[in-house]
UniProtKB/TrEMBL annotation:
The lineage of its organism: Bacteria, Bacillati, Actinomycetota, Actinomycetes, Kineosporiales. Residues 23-277 form the EAL domain. This is Diguanylate cyclase (GGDEF)-like protein. It comes from the Bacteria. The chain holds residues 471 to 747 of 747 of the full protein.
Amino acid sequence: AKSNGRGRAEVFDMALRTELEARAKLEADIRAGLADGQFELHYQPVMSVATGSLRSYEALIRWNHPERGLVPPAGFIPPAEESLLICEIGRWVLGTATRQLAGWIWDDPETHRGVTVSVNISARHLASPSLVDEVRQALHESGLEAARLVLEITETALMDEPTADAHLRDLRALGVTVSLDDFGTGYTSIGQLQKLQVDTLKIDQSFLHADDTPTQALVELMVTAAHAFSLDVVAEGVETREQLDRLADIGCELAQGYYLGRPKPARDTVVQAESLS
Ligand code: C2E
Ligand code: CA
Ligand code: CA
Ligand code: CA
């Protein structure tokens, strides 16, 4: 029995070591990829439901891995969130997205009048003491006005990070807008919305995709409650004309989804914007 126990311990040791090695390799690959220009942002439009005009671009990261090809965020963001590496990625995204929108505004101010760029900020990065300075620096270096930047955060970030509230207050004092992503999937009740340091709610796409009557009633309830607290609402994951019509009926003002536009590389984004306006 004794030798058996040791056998199991060795197997466990091996598995743990393999996992640690895989993680260390991924981290080294991400660092090298950042230095080597392997990451890029794709942009997906957020549109006005009533007028069909462009309101924002959500920046969504992609990794052009030399061997694995185009890696979606699900393949590297969750492991990066386990370490401070997510802050390095976040810093790169902030710098790139602000520079990109500033460039588009410079090239075509008419098409981009009032258009913002939305950047996803992970919980750990929101908790980082340097985030506020990084945002200030990205705005300064790009020349983008603070009002043109939207930070998308999740409920988990607000619940788990004690410093989140103070950082959000500082960020909003800069003039940056804050959006609560994936709303409805976490534990935030509608009553808590009043106290949160956010400007916009993004209703998670799972609510759009379930088309049973109770879920539709929930979406309407979320929109009504958000408006009562003076929050804007974005419906995520709009894939059909019917879904868009329903959002118009219940007074949801903003929408995002494949029906309106897929995430596209930067070089194709402006072409899409011009066809919309
Ligand atoms: P998210 O922030 O909720 O982003 C929306 C995701 O839904 C994107 O997936 C987008 O491509 C997808 N989507 C948009 N419209 C539709 C639709 O109509 N139908 C369906 N089925 N999907 C739609 P993506 O780009 O794979 O990103 C997945 C997640 O990865 C994001 O979810 C976000 O949590 C994270 N992520 C992406 N980019 C970044 C980043 O730069 N930083 C951080 N921290 N996280 C990021
Ligand atoms: Ca135009
Ligand atoms: Ca998002
Ligand atoms: Ca979302």
